[in-house]
Amino acid sequence: MEASIIRGNLRDRIQNKLACSVIRDRRFLDDEQLLRSEQLAVLEEIFNANVRDAEISEISDHFAPILRNDHPYHLALWGKTGTGKTLTVRFFLNLLAEMCSEQAIPMREVHLDLSTPRPCFRALNDLACLLNASKRYKKGISLEELMLRIEESLADYKGYLVLFVDEVDNIRRDKDTFMSFLVRRLPQAVPSKLILVFASNRLTWPDNLDPRVKSFLRLNELIFKPYDAVDLQKILDIRVRKAINPEAVKPGVIEKIAALASRDHGDARQAVTLLARSACLAEKTGQSITLDLVDRAASEIEQDKYVTMIRTAPVQLQLAMAAVIQAARAHRGSALNSNASYDAYQHLAAMAKIRALTRRAFGDLLNELDMYCFLRAHVFSRGRYGRNREISLDLPAETLKAIESAILLNLGLGRSTQRTLSF
Ligand SMILES: Nc1ncnc2c1ncn2[C@@H]1O[C@H](COP(=O)(O)OP(=O)(O)OP(=O)(O)O)[C@@H](O)[C@H]1O
Ligand SMILES: [Mg+2]
């Protein structure tokens, strides 16, 4: 009897949850979880909605010569993060491959994704793997050997080879060797018609190239502008249709997310993240996505950014930040000077068993924190008594609390330390 009541309750609860759920398919709020075919289907809809029309037309013009057996130059795409470079190129190359196969033009496309930094060795090894020319090595094989294997694997291929080198600025060691191999050596060593497509969010990337590579590199360049509010609205609309229960989205929500995102950065990735976070909050609180929830989600995302930044910062910087937060709390809003925060810093360093730096070095830490906008340190003169700093914390109280907890946890101090400190 007992068991059947529980069963009934559970079933009702789950049914209820499903009936009023906000999110229908979570995967469409996170591209990493989408299969390639699904990603391309979403993209098709997006590009049908005329987003990135100008860029797609330019890329098509660039590659058109392939269809009359000519050999286009290489292509470089610049643009800030989240402006759709990777998506657009992948979508386009997919279409191009289809068109080529319809016309029996041999064409291969390879996407070398360097979104995490890596040395030339790993990049070449990745490329060799993509071309089925080698297995994955940690070491024990020279750069030269890897290059030879890549060349051998292409020795009999006479068709077009479009090599999309994504986030090309992420080659950390032997960058010139890598570029010189792609730009000078490979095209001469293999019969394939190689077309390189580079993408990067650093406009200045070509300036740092070896001049010998640069003079060889025939590039067409294309800049991706940040998305405007209208584009973002179209992008979000499609996501909402795929991922969210339309009744759970209050009027004005998409417009608001698009407006916030276009005003701050024009980054579609962040706009989708804000939509996803708002939907999660709505689901948690059992209501629809409202304008207020969007604001809350935006401030949570902002908070996470600061917390992640400080969590990965050097330990002394973390100590200084926690000390300032605690000293400010002890001073309850009255102006905080560097002496009070230095005392708090020494105290905290002793508790964490970390060597405290000198007063001067502590001042440098404050300047660094100021640079990252964690606090404001204003230097003022006290006449013949020298100079002092006035420190103020402008971040919202909740963010400060989250930052402090993250630091104390990192230092192995937990939250209990806050109570034991007194000034
Ligand atoms: N046109 C678009 N339609 C839908 N979503 C988009 C579009 N452009 C970008 N996005 C979203 O933004 C994310 C980032 O896009 P993409 O990876 O193409 O940007 P990027 O310019 O390559 O950025 P990065 O320089 O950081 O690599 C995508 O995963 C997707 O969620
Ligand atoms: Mg990209």
Structural class: alpha/beta
The radius of gyration is: 27 Å
* Bound ligands, named by name, code or SMILES: adenosine-5'-triphosphate, magnesium ion
Q: Give me the CATH architecture of the largest domain, please.
A: 3-Layer(aba) Sandwich
Helix proportion: 40-55%
What spatial order of strands do you see in the largest sheet? 2-3-4-1-5
- According to CATH, the homologous superfamily of the largest domain is P-loop containing nucleotide triphosphate hydrolases
Largest sheet, in brief, is:
5 strands, parallel
Number of strands: 8
How would you describe the shape? Answer: globular
Helix count from the secondary structure assignment: 17
Which fold name is given in CATH as the topology of the largest domain?
Rossmann fold
Topology order in helix (H) and strand (E) letters: HHHEHEHHEHEHEHHHHHEHHEEHH
What is the compact description of this entry?
With 423 residues, the protein is α/β, with parallel strands linked by helices. The protein has 17 helices and eight strands. The strands form two sheets. A five-stranded parallel sheet has the order 2-3-4-1-5, sandwiched between helices. It has a three-stranded antiparallel sheet with strand order 6-8-7.
